[in-house]
Amino acid sequence: MATPARIAILVVSDRAARGEYEDKGGPGAEAWLRAVITSPVEIARHIVPDGREGVAARLRALVEDGADLILVTGGTGPAPRDQTPEAVTDVAHREYPGFGEEMRRASLREVPTAILSRQTAVSRDATLIITLPGKPSAIATCLDAVFAAVPYCLDLLGAGRIETDPARIRAFRPKAG
Ligand SMILES: Nc1ncnc2c1ncn2[C@@H]1O[C@H](COP(=O)(O)OP(=O)(O)OP(=O)(O)O)[C@@H](O)[C@H]1O
Ligand SMILES: Nc1nc2c(c(=O)[nH]1)N[C@H]1C(S)=C(S)[C@@H](COP(=O)(O)O)O[C@H]1N2
């Protein structure tokens, strides 16, 4: 059997980290991934409070640990504690602004405040890191909008291979020539 791709979900939320509310983002993201990915996959969920240093440190550790893909939810907005984009930039080797553009475009069809999210995607070594808004309902909207490009991006980075259910997401891998 193929080596499972390793995916980490990092929920960034002060209140979920303190246990003040039940985290719905992490389970929502995991359910989305399990419904879409048909190849072997290991999914781990983590929760950290908002904050540039803490989020960056956790991202470095997850990359070091061999994650192929990291989904980060929360902390992308304009509030002072929203520092996820700064943390992601701190650990980035490369940025892929098209992810943020497309996720915002899809979210703007639902809420005008989607424009407030500074969500983006970066890579560090062979790991792709995608940031998503914290609102649990935003997670599916954003993943639906961009995930078709994720498997090929992981191929190009040298990360683990992911196959998807074409009825949900048709992964696009350009043919050679
Ligand atoms: N992990 C989560 N689980 C459940 N609901 C969430 C989660 N993250 C965000 N939300 C909901 O979406 C709203 C907007 O998310 P945002 O990330 O801006 O939260 P926030 O107001 O900064 O608070 P916190 O960091 O404590 O989650 C929150 O007020 C909350 O109702
Ligand atoms: N699809 C979708 N995108 C969305 C939202 C939403 O409700 N649905 N909320 C917006 C709002 S109100 C904010 S402030 C930003 C940032 O959210 P975050 O700080 O939780 O990352 O995401 C935006 N993107």
From TrEMBL:
Coiled coil: none annotated. The keyword Nucleotidyltransferase applies. It is an enzyme of class 2 (transferase). Its EC number is 2.7.7.75. Pathway: Cofactor biosynthesis; molybdopterin biosynthesis. This is Molybdopterin adenylyltransferase. GO terms for molecular function: molybdopterin adenylyltransferase activity.
